[in-house]
Amino acid sequence: AAAAAAPVVSLAQLAGEEEKAREDVLALEKVLLSRLASLGIVDGCLSEWHRMFVELQTRIRDMKAGHLRPQYVLSMLQVSKAQTDFALGDSDAPTAELPAGWSCHWSAEHNAHFYICDATGETQWHAPGTDPAAADTTVPAVSAAAA
User: Fold this and answer.
1) How many CB atoms lie within 10 A of CB 117?
2) Neighbour order of strands in the sheet with 102-107
3) pTM
4) Is 113:94 a contact under the CB 8 Å cutoff?
């Protein structure tokens, strides 16, 4: 008995299936967000710490199931650790008051703090109002995870 040949799937077919799955995810996201809103769970009702807690558990579960690369999870956990270090006073982050409209963030890639001007999106390594000559002049790229 001859073995049945495995079906051949084209790259275009795979791309189409991927796009269809993405559309289904976004449609279901809208439904679920609407239902959660009905239950009183809306953006802003959870603290950033609660959100971090849920993201941590979700990423670890997904990594253990083989859906996320350990390197990605590690980089996200390093960002979360830096944020908790800063909040708990366990970091070397500058404690000086920042000018209005500026925020301090952590770059896990560079293992350093950087600053973002919220109005312009400008990023810099040195604290606003300090001497930039004393700081690294390479401006960090801001990713969604870091900001």
Assistant:
1) 15
2) 102-107, 112-117, 123-124
3) 0.49
4) yes
